[in-house]
Specification:
Arc Repressor Mutant, subunit A; 3-stranded antiparallel beta sheet; alpha+beta
Amino acid sequence: MEPVPPEVVQQVAEYFSVLSEPMRLRLLNLLKDGEKCVQDLVEATSTSQANVSKHLKVMLQAGILTRRSEGTSAYYSVSDDLSFELCTLVCDRIATRIEEQAQHFRAFSLASKQ
């Protein structure tokens, strides 16, 4: 098996790093139902326009979002649905682990009552 070229590994790591920021995940979640303008995203996240714009720019540069302008407003939408699939896989994995931990706690709790 051929080793993976460092450039490929770097690009994959950069893609994952884009999704590693909680605010970006919040923005993606807000955009899952369709296009939204920056102001709507600012209001929904209760953060500054500068902060929202910074994160939108990172996702735009990574190819996860698209942007269109209408007058003085900028509208963003998700162009890469793979990010939702990745989030679903990760959330399912975390939920499974939490459920397994809960079973261990229940078993410990029941064992201590006997």
